[in-house]
Design goal:
58% of the residues lie in helices and 6% in strands. Helix 3 packs antiparallel against helix 6. The longest helix is centred in the N-terminal third of the chain and has 32 residues, at 11-42. By secondary structure, the protein is mainly α. The protein folds into two domains: 11-187, no CATH class; 190-313, no CATH class. Strands 1-2-3 form a three-stranded antiparallel β-sheet, covered by helices on one side.
Length: 314
């Protein structure tokens, strides 16, 4: 025998409850990612992300949460008011299915989180950064479990219970602070654009450097100017500064040595501490492109044993 239809319900109720749960899952996933990002920034692990790259990793969580989280809070509040006005809707099957499924997922996450903690403990892999990430997942999953478990057991709105009201306001406040704090951590869009322009300059210099090395390997002499690197067949044209359009500075300082210079808007010396975000050359050797604000020059010397002339290779 099918369950009788609850009076006053319809497709709108089904849609709203499904939408609210989808918003919840989105918030849970990206709040966890945001907390992980904070931990990577302030308590970096030697195997994790560092500096600007850790800050860049939280940009998507912030972008999603700043839109989805307010919608979730509003929609959940709307549904609670609707349930208060229409108590019979608490028996809506789709609502109960979604709540029980959410409790099921939260339980699986909590158990998996604790199992992972125990495994890392037995493996000797416990670090402060790892423990905090475990606690972050536990906090997010347990919060969802407590809130929706309470909704299944009680027939009153959460805001009508003093303790649950304090819990809800606390979670909303912490979530809002986490999102707002992210804007200060990632920095301003203007600063990010300056950094990207400097990253473009570093990539340009790296490209020019290996064209100079290739030129020397072919002709056994360094080019006198960057224009000499122009190759119509390969389609290579020496890149220029992305803002001013001026050519980068190049000087041959010896038979095997040269210097490349560019004017930078930012410094990346702090970003290269621990894990250097610099390009990797075609030979698998990591280059050093640390720079300060202003003009910075990079001295390079070709080692003929490592980069022999092509005639000798043949």
């Amino acid at each position: 025998m099918s369950t009788p239809e609850i009076k006053g319900t319809g497709p709108k109720d089904v849609f709203l409850h499904i939408l609210a749960i989808l918003f919840l899952y989105t918030c849970v996933i990206f709040f966890s990612a945001l907390l992980f990002g904070y931990i990577n920034i302030y308590l970096p692990d030697v195997l994790g992300e560092y500096g600007r790259y850790a800050r860049t990793a939280i940009r998507w969580p912030i972008s999603i949460l700043v839109i989805v989280f307010p919608f979730y809070v509003w929609l959940n509040s709307f549904l609670q008011k609707d349930l208060t006005a229409n108590p019979e809707k608490r028996e809506l099957r789709v609502r109960k299915w979604l709540l029980y499924f959410t409790l099921f997922l939260a339980t699986i996450v909590i158990i998996g989180d604790l199992v992972t903690l125990m495994y890392q403990f037995l493996s000797g892999g416990i670090t402060l950064s790892f423990v905090l990430k475990v606690l972050a997942v536990l906090l997010v999953a347990a919060s969802a479990f407590l809130y929706y478990g309470w909704n299944l057991r009680k027939n009153i709105a959460p805001m009508a219970d003093p303790r649950m009201k304090a819990f809800v306001l606390g979670i909303v406040s912490l979530g809002s602070l986490a999102i707002i704090g992210g804007f200060f951590v990632v920095g301003s869009p203007q600063a990010e654009r300056l950094w990207q322009l400097d990253e473009r300059r570093v990539n340009d210099l790296s490209m020019i450097q290996w064209q100079v090395v290739s030129y020397w390997q072919t002709k056994e002499v360094l080019p006198q100017t960057l224009d000499a690197l122009t190759d119509d067949i390969q389609g290579f044209v020496p890149p220029r500064d992305p803002v001013t359009g001026e050519a980068y500075s190049y000087h041959a300082t010896g038979a095997l040595s040269f210097e490349l210079c560019a004017v930078f808007e930012t410094t990346n010396k702090e970003e290269t501490t621990g894990k250097s975000p610099v390009p990797v050359d075609p030979y698998g050797v990591q280059e050093n492109w640390m720079h300060d604000t202003g003009e910075t020059c990079f001295a390079r010397t070709i080692d003929p044993d490592r980069y022999p002339p092509l005639k000798e290779v043949r």
